[in-house]
Amino acid sequence: MIYRLLALNIDGTLLQSNGKIHRTTKDAVDYVQQKGIYVTLVTSRSIASAKKVAKALKLKSFVVAHHGAYIAAPNAKPIYVKRISEEATYDSVRFLEGFPCQIRIVHEDFSLANKQKINNDLLVKTVFTTGDPVFYSQQFVPSISESLIEQPVSPPKIEAYFEEEEDLRDAKKALMSTFAEIEAIELSPLRLDIVPYGVSKLTGLMALGEHLGISLNEMVAIGDSNEDISLIEEVGLGVAMGNAGFPVKKAADWITRSVNDHGVAYMVKEHFRKQQPIEFLKKMKIIKS
């Protein structure tokens, strides 16, 4: 099979445990780009944060951010956006304010968070190391719902950081049964992301593929989290990182090394070195232009 697109998760796939991208990973990304393979990021992060990683990798391609709700290239208007309505945003936030959690409205241009005191040290680290660049406006207010009354917002994503796992489970169950136009995605036992109904990394990548004229079976996806499973299952070659959990590995066609052992670079070396450059394949009429 000839692959024309490589989709990469960021956290746990590109970024090592120290928060950096290793040189071998950057070289691997550059290598596949030189072969004419389209490289994109597919991430739960905001578009501002995803663009920062894309810049580090010297990508000029469209990236799929906010769990698939927002697709844009650096310095370009988005080609695909799905938003939570103003009403559903307010109702969801008002409900979440009944729990001891920090809530963040994650718009493409800014974030708005409540001033919830966080007592869990691990949670503090999670909330304040989400990768948003320093130029991304972050505002903290006493009550998000009151702020939304004055200035309604229709964001691609809402994040909620809980102190207790039981609270997250209860909140997720209630949100999914009460609000029909949203999805609640459990990223960890303490973090819940809310996105528009029907949004996922897979639907985002499908939208990008349609825009580029690249089918799912011509794609390779590498990931490590449960939210990557549908993506890994549906593309032509689904790859799980060595640090991924069992469900992700079970869904994958191939398992590479862990992120700290340069799993992306290892996968690229094993699979893409045998594939001829895309331009050569077009010239030989092996694939269509």
Can you summarize this structure?
This protein is of the alpha/beta class and 289 residues long. Helices cover 35% and strands 21% of the residues. A hairpin with a 4-residue loop joins strand 3 and strand 4.
What's the topology here?
Layout (H helix, E strand, L loop, with lengths): L4 E4 L14 H12 L3 E4 L5 H10 L6 E3 L4 E3 L7 E2 L4 H11 L4 E6 L3 E5 L6 H7 L9 E5 L2 H7 L6 E6 L2 H14 L3 E7 L2 E6 L4 H12 L6 E5 L5 H6 L2 E4 L5 H6 L2 E2 L7 H9 L6 H6 L6
Parallel strand pairs: 1-2, 1-12, 7-8, 12-13, 13-14
Antiparallel strand pairs: 3-4, 4-5, 6-7, 6-9, 9-11, 10-11
Features:
six-stranded mixed sheet, 35% helix, 14 strands, five-stranded parallel sheet, alpha/beta, 2 domains, 289 residues, Hypothetical Protein, Haloacid Dehalogenase-like Hydrolase, Chain: A, domain 2, 11 helices, Rossmann fold
Write a structural description.
This protein has 289 residues and is of the alpha/beta class. The chain contains 11 helices and 14 strands. The strands form 3 sheets. Strands 8-7-6-9-11-10 form a 6-stranded mixed beta sheet, with helices on one face. Strand 6 and strand 7 form a beta hairpin. It is elongated and about 60 Å long. About 3% of the residues have low confidence.
